[in-house]
Predict the 3D structure of the following.
Amino acid sequence: MLYWLIQSDRKVWFWSGFGIGALWFWWISMSFSNYGFPWAIPFGVVGIASVYGLIFYLVAKLADIIEKRLTLSALFTKAFALLVLSYLHPMGFDWFKPELIFTNSYLGIEKWQFAITLIAITLTLYKKQLLFLLLIILAYPYNAQFNSTPLPKSKIVLSNSNITVQDKWNPQLRPYHIDMVFKKIDRAIHEGKDLIIFPESIFAFFLNEHPNIMTALQASSNEIAIVIGGLYLDYDTNRNSTYIFKEGQFQVANKSVLVPFGEQNPLPKWMGNWINEIFFDGAPDYVASPDVTDYTINGVTYRNAICFEGTSEELYKGDPKQMILISNNGWVSPSIEPTQQKILLQYYSKKYGTTIYHSVNMSPSYVIHNGEIIKSITSSNP
């Protein structure tokens, strides 16, 4: 694909960007159906596709201008653009990374390795010599074969749930969801586990406003550590949070990177308020924590991540060795989003050497270690 794209004209670049935007991000618009606007889904898909189509078109146009004025082949400008496009985040959404196509391949995913691949392709096209493709061998991740370490043995349970958005926010079903959580905790204790992890907002309410549930979780944490997703009311501020219960105490880790539009409107305030009023019933944006949170359980330090955060490079500052990620993929189910999320997590696991424990609602839970999916840790069912 890269070989074909680098040598193509503006028209092909526009439609390539349009196609990538549509096929890679169509699922974002699926969330409209949860707010009663299914008619807006095609407009959302076309809108996102058009943004990427325009970006790609401008890249190709710039390459042609540089070729005419500086006599530098457009091939090199296009290759350089592909290298840096992953730094462009429309509306704060950073899921487009061209190097992701090599996540599950024999080639490396570091920028310098991707650069070698692009150089090899560009020189092959420019010199019309296939031998230059052999340079791709230099992009093989040799060090990864020697630096990989086995997954440490642990007694962790990744709880998995399949609760639709409608059921999750249905007040009449709240007692059932609470009972399900405590049954899973009791089973994990019976199995001799020392940590159980629940998905994002498994408690779809302000958990700190329910002292009886908090007290019960603190009591259970004397026998097993509990990491669980719930909302947190910080005075008049709404937060999407992780609650960590251990040894009869609790800690709250608030989300620091919010989902564009889903949790925080990235548009100017006047326009953002208008969008919130129309599509989100005037609901206020969530508020992000200014810093990422690390916490320690049973002597192991984990980086806290909630859904979109785990796929954001910002969460990997400091090269965390362990991460607990909780997600709710119900907002865009059914879609390809869980697969894309998994590829991105593999990418970051490889890049930063982070082991990721991922507990999910509406798609399977899993562990990623050395960039590979580990299925040895299974979910606990009531």
